[in-house]
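Researcher: Sequence of Oligoendopeptidase follows. Predict its structure.
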Amino acid sequence: MSYSQQWELESIYAGGSDSTQLSEELANVELQIQKLAQSLQADSITYESLHEQVSLVQAVLATLREAESFVSCLMAQNMFDKRAVQLNDRLKQLSAAYTSVLTQFDHTISQIADQQWERFLSQPELEPVAYNLNERRELAKHKMAPELEALAADLAIDGYHGWGDFYNTVVSRMSFKLEDGSELSAGQMANRLDESDRSKREAAFQQWEQGWSEQADLCADTLNHLSGFRLKWYKNRSWHSYLDEPLQMNRMSKQTLDAMWQAVEKGKQLLIPYFERKAKLLGVNKLAWHDVEAPLAASSTTMSFDEAAAFIIEQFGSFSKELADFARMAFENSWIEAEDRPGKRPGGFCTSLPKSKQTRIFMTFSGSASNVSTLAHELGHAYHQHVMKDMPPLTQEYAMNVAETASTFAEMIVSDQALLRAPSKEEKLALVDDKIQRAIAFYMNIHARFIFECSFYERRAEAPLTTESLNELMVRAQKQAFLDLLSDYHPHFWAAKLHFYLTDVPFYNFPYTFGYLFSAGIYKRALAEGESFRAAYDALLQDTGRLMVEELAHKHLGVDLTKPHFWEEAASLVAEDVKLFLELTEQ
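Model: Prediction complete. Tokens:
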């Protein structure tokens, strides 16, 4: 069967960025936000008024998510759609207004007496969202007064978030001059760090470091202001740790975080032979920072889009008929934008449309093995949303750490089968090396970021840090995370990495490692139990937006995430990949 490589958007809002239906919907959302605000002005709250407020909260949430997803699709498929950019600005304003009203809603429900609150939640209309409402109620008790929270949020737009946006300004002004006189942007230069020729790769890395050293003072100011704002905000909320917010956002405990990193430390030991062998293959005593992700073999196998679709559907079917049927439906209904054409933004994503009960996937497909893995990954995200499509909007708001569960799981299914079917030794080496690189990223690179941020926040509580101090903290964190296996490091990584400057998600690091290992543990269970695990897998995904991760794992897997055992088993899966790598590179 031949599948379209252009997605279908007309059934969501006809007319694209000129859609009158979308304009009318946004106008209606604005009225609903105003209605919710007026409802919260009442002196007393009844079950009827609470039910109406919860209905409005969810209706606005679903519409905003739908519209935001649609507009993100418009901007991704055509970076020059100026009307879509205007719509995006309009949505940001509506989201800010909604957040402000939600702050008042959270405060209101936090003031309801416990016994009355329990009676309210026992009613059948609210019981499905009881966990989410309780979560909002408890969090409101640990925040400032609603008017102060609203003021802080308003000031943050041009302050806190403004500093986050300033990082984009810094990056946009950077350019790297080559020997032939041509100039590259930061994004283009980053691609040269994966050069197969070591001398070229080393030269590119030195130029990369030099470029960021020239911007480092600006980046240091930015990072100091961002962290200073957060620490002041936390102090006024009487939060005692810089990890309180990221842990709360990811619905996990400090005990689970500690157990995960403890297991990662053990898992790192399994990677040492890989580092030693790769250094030998490159003819050096120790790998340099720029060698860690250097390609050792190139995969020459390519697939057409239709071949990739057939392969993915077949492999999904080996785990679950439902997963395979969903993927087939996504291809048949043109939910995937994969065409290789100018004007598209780079990268890939999956976005949810909760009102339409659909998803859309964006990528640029050129037929590589990496493209096939990316497609499987995004289809995993889409399946996660698919099994939640009939649930209340509040329960579909799952956190970053579990957001990667279904995507990584789907990718593992396909990548393992691709490795088994690889037609040559070179193909196998390229694929297994790619798998090990992912483990290194989550066990070491992400860990270095986490160690750095912890050290940074501890020092920043006393005073702003200089560029030299930030470099020192970064190298120290990298040495610890990489077991000092490298000959040199990346001092200005803290300046170059976007994730340190994102203001909507603090500590944009450990959730990645959580998601990778959590998926690996689930994948191991699926291999052992086969088809009988499918229903349990769907049920687990459905609960990702309404349980703490510890409760989620205990309910569906029978494991305790606060203890290292589950994490150690997941982290040990890399041993088989390292064994195969050593066999393939035996000389």
